[in-house]
Structures are given as C-alpha cells and as structure tokens.
Design goal:
This protein is α/β, with parallel strands linked by helices and 611 residues long. Among the domains are: 2-168, Rossmann fold, CATH 3.40.50; 372-480, Leucine Dehydrogenase, chain A, domain 1 (Rossmann fold, 3-Layer(aba) Sandwich), CATH 3.40.50; 489-593, Rossmann fold (3-Layer(aba) Sandwich), CATH 3.40.50. Helices cover 38% and strands 16% of the residues. The strands form four sheets. Strands 6-7-8-9-10-11-12 form a seven-stranded parallel β-sheet. Strands 14-13-15-17-18-16 form a six-stranded mixed β-sheet, sandwiched between helices. Strand 22, helix 24 and strand 23 (585-587) form a beta-alpha-beta unit. The longest helix has 20 residues, at 590-609. The chain is globular, with a radius of gyration of 27 Å.
Length: 611
C-alpha cells in the first residue's frame, strides 16, 4: 500500500511518519517512510530554505513532483508531502492506483494558523500568520477533493497511541455508534469498501439531502439491510427511500418535513426550532407527533447549560426511547455526546467532516469508555486548542475516566459547575478565564493557591465519591500548579541577575502573582494600554515574558528584547512573529504546560485514588 500524507504546514505529518514506522513494525512488516522535503534535500544537497531563496518556489515545486514520482514507483511506502504540493496538477494525468491512498491529516488549530521560526517564508511582504491564513481555504479545498480519508489528529498528540495504530492498521472494533455517509464516501467508494464498511459500526446513515440517487444505489447494493438507517430530509422524498421504507428499513423522519408522517417510520426527529421556540416546547412538539413505538431524536441547537440540563434530563427519563444529540455552531457539545455513549440508541461518530460539528471524532469516541460513572475535563474558553486531553487521557484511562474539553465562559460558570458535578465531574484542569472562579469554588485550597488567589487544578477527594450529594462549593479542593510550571521553565532559562532586573511582563492578568513571585523586580505592562502599570517606569527590556493571549497587541516598537518567553504554547501566538521580526530567541510555553500537567497528575493520583 502507498500512503500519501497531506495537510497544512506544521500539522504533525513528520512526527506521524515516525509513529507509523513503530506501528508497522508491531505488525511484522517494515514499510519505508519518507518526508518529501528531506528527500529533496538529500537529492539536491541544499536545504528547502536555500532552494526557495536561490531558485524560487516554482523550481522547488518541480523538484517536489520529480522526487515524489520516483518514490511512488515503490510497491509499499508512506510519504508526507509539503503543504503546498501541487496535488491537482501532479495527479491530473496519472492513472488511478488502487494500491494508493491519500490521507488528509488535520487538527482543529489548522483554522487559526501557525507561525514558524524555522521554515521558509513564501511571502515575506505580509505577516507570517497572514501568509498561512491566505493559503488556508485554497489548500483546504484541494485536500478535501484529493483525500481518500481524513485523520483528525488530536491536539498535542506526539506519542504512539493504540487507537492511532488500529486506525492506520484498519482494525477498528467496538465502535458502538454509527456514521453519516457523505458525498466524500461516494467519491471514495473503493476506500470506503476497504475501510469503514469493514469496521464495527452499528449503522450507516443514508440521507437523501446529502447523497445523490446514484450514490444511494451503490450503498444500498453494498450494505446489509440491518446496517442501514435511511433519513428523510428532502421535502420531496426519494423514491429509493420510499421503496426502502416499504421493505422495512429503519427510517428517520424529520419533523421539518411536516406532520404528515409516512407509515413505517421508526425514528422521529427534530433538528430546527421555530422562531423564539423554547426547548421544552420543542420537546412537547416532538412527543405530540410521535406514537409510543417510535424512537425520538432531539437534535436541535442548544444555547446554554440550562438548556443542556433540560435535554439531558429528558433523555435520562426514557433512555431506551429518547436520544439527545445537542448541536452548536462551534461543536462545543461534543463532550455531551461522548458522555451519552452507550446510554442511548442513536450515537453518531464524525468521520471526516461528519454532518454536525458536535459529532465526536473517531479518536475521541474510542478514547471514551462506555457509560463512565465519572469524568475529568479541561475547563475554560477557548479549549479547542488545548493539549490537556492528549496529556491526561492515558493517565485517567485505567480508572475508566474519560477526559473531555468543556468550553465554559465566566458567565456560565455558576450554572455549569453544579451540572457537571451532578453528571460526574471529579477532576479538572482549569484555564483562562476561570482560575479565579475555580478559586472561589473550592472550600479546601492549598496555601500556595490562597497566596496566588487562583486555582488551575480541581478534584473531589475519594471520600466524597460515594457519598450523597452535598453543595458543590463544599466539596471541591484546589491547587495552583502554574507555579511549578513557571518555575520549571525559568530553571531551564538560567536567567542572569542582569536579565531578571531587565525583564518586562507583557500582560499577565491572573498569572501575575505567580510571575512576580519569581521575578519581583520585573516590570509589568498592560496589553490593553501598552503602558506600565501604576507606579512603574518604562524600560527597554532584555527579556520579555508574553503573558497575554496569543493575539495580544504587540509591545512598543522601540523595544528590542533578546529573549522572549511565551507562556502560550499555541502555534498562532503573535509572540513568535514578534520574536522572529526582532531576531530574538523565542521560548514556547510548552515546557511550562508539561511541567504543570505532570504536577496535576501527581495531585490527582494522591488525592483521588491513593489509599
């Protein structure tokens, strides 16, 4: 098999190559892996940056095509292509190869963009982040057209994983959910037959608004009757669906099509609200149209945690019949669908884009045990870029705790926390902007957390797990491991006294007490105003600590720090671009995150499970 990895710059194709080498060896077969850029460098004797600067991008693209053509003459290989490889022109005249598959590797952070310190610039006339974003949509459309399947790589995963191994070894089992078939499945029909069709999905949903009659006929011919769920979504139903309904296929009728429901419908669903319609009224409308033997599916957009509680309560009263599939514009309720895994009849897994952003990815789904009693989470806003799930998932796995990403705003905190506790939240990593609210939540806090006035680590002691529920603000304990993380980061820096005395903290907010504990002479500046905080004078720093969000305003033009310490690990942090422009040494906040995450695990191990 010839596997070609495509995806945006910095997504992780090269590190995935190395893991695939390990997985192949585990199965007794050694498959050569190639990074196309490295192969070009070997053949040309020059670095990619040198080729770009001396010969130009057009010459480099020709070298890419020639090198890939040579590699693909092998029978088996895995090769990772550069983000800008001309897929359309390269494959335009090549005959189809059944032994070849193109895999689009992507991460949620693709959309935000990335800034690189060690890669050639394609357009130095604009900012590095703008350069990435300018090409994002165009490349996305090319990847979508050319990919046989999509691998949604979890943020922060840089280590071998059994789930990843099984995915690339085509050995998926125990899925306990279904997928919606999309036009991409029809376009990549042969790939579907060799992969998803052979996996252990409960069902394949065929929707008449997503698939053409020609595609539907192919899937009807391939799939067994008990594998198919037909879903009516078009005002004028497909004749194929009407015939399948007469033959007894499982069928879902959307109430958006009207209340004249055909005979034989087994599932009644609702996906859209009427203007100003409340969730209880939606539920009443759904139940009023159904007869007692029909399964109900509530799949409308959910706007708040209070509505979420209504939907969960409704589902729990009759889990054999009721299905709650909350939707949002951002995918923020995917954790709810994971929590409901094996708790309801209908569960959808997202293969590629899926039919809703809130459908969990295959990796998220397989990382979640069936019907867990408790769970852990990262809480904050935003959390889609967080590495915490990848960092903590394996730690909690032996205890059957899934680890979720839960987006909570400050305004939602007071309602969300009691609900999460009621559902089974027992440990949490807390990020901005919730650390002060987490501090207020805890009755038991460490002395350090008291001094700092902020908590980033929550847990419920083992003695509380089986007790009757008490008020949430009497149960939680908290610690602040940001202190440990920043200490570890500074120790690797070995700053001189002169540097410490010439350090500026750009921003800070809730982290300022931690930073000032280690750097008492550092001067702090407001990102919003660009001015020193009260009582401090402006300086020209040697060291700048970027303690604001990735998109924060840049410091004054006259500053020329030699070292920039970024407390973010996000790849779109403008601190990178600032450092690149000045030629300063840049340090990512990733080591800080790793150190404080390790400290969190030690706390949870001691407080939750150690006898």
């Amino acid at each position: 098999m010839k596997r070609i990895l495509i995806g945006h710059r910095g997504v992780g194709k090269s590190s995935l190559l190395q893991r695939l080498t390990i997985y192949e060896n585990l199965y007794g077969e050694t498959v050569p892996v190639y990074d196309l850029d490295r192969e070009i460098e070997k053949m040309s004797g020059a670095s990619v940056s040198e080729i770009f600067s001396v010969m130009g991008e057009a010459a480099f693209r020709k070298m890419e095509a020639k090198t890939l053509d040579l590699l693909l003459r092998q029978k088996n290989l895995v090769v990772a292509l550069g983000a800008g490889f001309p897929l359309d022109s390269f494959f335009a005249d090549r005959p189809p190869d059944k032994e070849q598959e193109i895999i689009w590797v992507r991460r949620p952070s693709d959309q935000s963009g990335r800034i690189f310190l060690n890669r050639p610039r394609l357009n130095p006339e604009i900012s590095a982040l703008s350069e990435f974003q300018l090409r994002y949509e165009e490349r996305n459309s090319v990847y979508a057209r050319k990919a046989n399947w999509i691998y949604d790589l979890p943020e922060g995963q840089s280590f071998p994983s059994e789930i990843e191994r099984d995915l690339f070894s085509n050995k998926m089992s125990g899925l306990n959910g279904g997928i919606t078939l999309l036009p991409s499945h029809g376009r990549n029909y042969e790939s579907f037959k060799s992969r998803e069709w052979r996996w252990d999905f409960d069902f394949f949903e065929l929707r008449d608004d997503l698939l053409s009659d020609e595609e539907l006929k192919k899937f009807f011919a391939l799939l067994d009757k008990n594998q198919i769920l037909i879903s009516f979504r078009k005002e004028k139903p497909s004749s194929l669906f009407l015939n399948a309904l007469k033959e007894g296929f499982r069928a879902d009728w959307s109430l958006e099509l009207g209340s004249k429901i055909p005979e034989g419908i087994s599932i009644l669903s609702v996906h859209e609200r009427a203007p100003e319609e409340t969730l209880p009224n939606v539920i009443n409308r759904l139940e009023a149209q159904a007869h007692s033997s029909q399964i109900l599916k509530l799949a409308v957009e959910i706007f708040s945690f209070s509505e979420l509680e209504i939907g969960l309560h409704w589902q729990a009263l009759d889990p054999a019949r009721r299905n709650f599939l909350p939707r949002s514009k951002t995918g923020r309720w995917s954790w709810v669908r994971l929590w409901l895994k094996d708790r309801q009849f209908l569960n959808f897994i997202r293969q590629g884009d899926g039919s809703a952003l809130d459908q969990p990815t295959l990796t998220e789904w397989l990382s979640t045990p069936n019907k867990p009693n408790f769970f852990a989470a990262v809480l904050g806003s935003p959390v889609s870029h967080s590495y915490s799930p990848a960092e903590h998932c394996e730690f909690f796995r032996p205890h059957d705790f899934p680890f979720f990403s839960i987006n909570i705003s400050e305004a939602e905190w007071s309602f969300a926390l009691p609900l999460l506790e009621k559902l089974g939240l027992r440990a949490a990593a807390v990020t901005a902007p919730l650390k002060k609210l987490a501090f207020q939540l805890c009755k038991n806090k460490s002395q350090l957390a008291e001094e700092l006035g902020a908590v980033n680590t929550l847990w419920l002691k083992r003695s509380a797990l089986g007790q009757e529920e008490r008020k949430f603000d009497q149960k939680w304990s908290g610690e602040n491991t940001d202190f440990i993380g920043f200490k570890s980061l500074l120790e690797t820096m070995e700053l001189s006294d002169e540097q410490k005395n010439s350090t500026v903290i750009w921003g800070g907010g809730g982290t300022l007490p931690v930073l000032k504990r280690f750097l008492p002479t550092a001067q702090t500046y407001s990102i919003r105003s660009g001015e020193p905080r009260t009582g401090q004078r402006a300086i020209f720093p040697q060291v700048l600590i970027w303690a604001g969000p990735p998109s924060a305003n840049l410091p004054p033009n006259e500053w020329r720090p030699e070292l920039i310490i970024d407390l973010n690990y996000r790849e779109d942090s403008l601190a990178k671009e600032y450092g690149q422009r000045l030629g300063a040494r840049y340090i990512s906040g990733l080591p800080m995150f790793k150190a404080q995450a390790q400290a969190q695990q030690e706390i949870w191990q001691s407080e939750l499970w150690q006898e």
